[in-house]
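anyone seen this seq b4? input:
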Amino acid sequence: MSNILDNVLMFALGLVALSFLVFIHELGHFAVAKWNKVKVNTFSIGFGKKLLRFKKGETEYCLSAIPFGGYVAMAGENPDSIEDGAKPSDRDFLGKSVGARAAIAFAGPFVNIIFAFVLLVVLYMVGVQEPSTKDLIVGFVAKDSPALQAGILPGDTITAMNGKPTQGWDDFREQIGVSLGAEVMLEVHRGGTPLSIVVVPQELVVPAQDSTGSEIKMGIGDIGVYPRNRVIVREPPKEGSAAAKAGIVQGDTIYEINGEHISRYEEVVRQIDGSKGGEVKVTVIRGGDTLTMGLTPAYNEEYKRYMVGIQMGYVLFRETHVVRRGPVEALEKTCATSWKMTTSIFRYFKRMFQGQVKVDAFSGPVSIVAVMGNVWMSGFQDFLMLLALISINLGVMNLLPLAITDGGLLMFLGIEKVRGRPLSLKTQSIIQNVAAAFFISFFVFITILDFGKLSLFLR
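predicted toks r here
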């Protein structure tokens, strides 16, 4: 029951976060439309059936059933709504100058980008966790992984990748992720000896968090190296379980099982399930004490394996520290971060065309909501950083000249400005219908992929 409530809360928080980003986006369109005295008929968060609505002045404000988006419906926005031969009124969208219409179209993405920029400045001034060192100390190397085959060992320090100094684990994972099947040169230090090791990332495949035993292909590269961490008991053990009976409590670090050091939760699963119901000796660290206790796993029919009734999580060794910046430094850091966030989507598209990222790597609204809710529940500061990332990407994506986006409208307006008249309604309709068909198909495809990944986020 607790897991169900956690999952409901996760999706609720994710929807609130996404709806907020949609709200400020549409608010940008709305405010500039009102500034230009365009009549706004509807301001809606979500699409489809209107669940909640109220009218103030000439505008109806709605909360609609499909929460993945929103819209501002303006008078005279659609040429078909204007009678043949009639001129648009001065309250119609089409009755305004090209500059005014462009400002209205640009306002939504602009607000998303500015919001992210301001949020990042505030975060950097308040203080964020950043790596204590840009070097990467390897804590664990996965069995049969590209890293192990290339000769990387636990305790190695990775200092550079393809000739460039490493910038922390997040940047390292991103660079490896977009290098699927490509050779990556790592500079590694082992006991003071520098080594150059070539590794080829393979597609990241993770087990589904359900009882099917299936795996999920993530579409990005992975070499199987992980930072130093501790496996902890994330929540109180299930009542009546082997762990509860043995005295394991929330926050315990699982240090060893049957004398084998534990650095990943998969090792716990392997040891517990491999016992086939026989007693296992579990050593935990609690505060400054080391405790060893015997547990007898029980077979779980739902998951088809032996379990002891605990939920696990990771806690990294203290390889980060809080960095606070003054206004000027915060502004400089924000500019660098914003540029990296803004260009990230283009890097992914480029690598996808090069075959170093697969389409499975893309996330749709379902995954985005799940990730945002999950991160919010795990740490509010990390959530705010993610909120900034998604807000910038939402703004950038909407500025792309893709016919049905704000950037598409800006493209049509640019053509109108150059030609001195708009494209014919027939030409615009053909372009928009083709684009709509493509994006609806792509949306359905991505959503299907999303549901395939959903078990990754369930608690």
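The mean pLDDT is 85. The CA atoms of residues 171 and 177 lie 10 Å apart. kinda curious what u guys think
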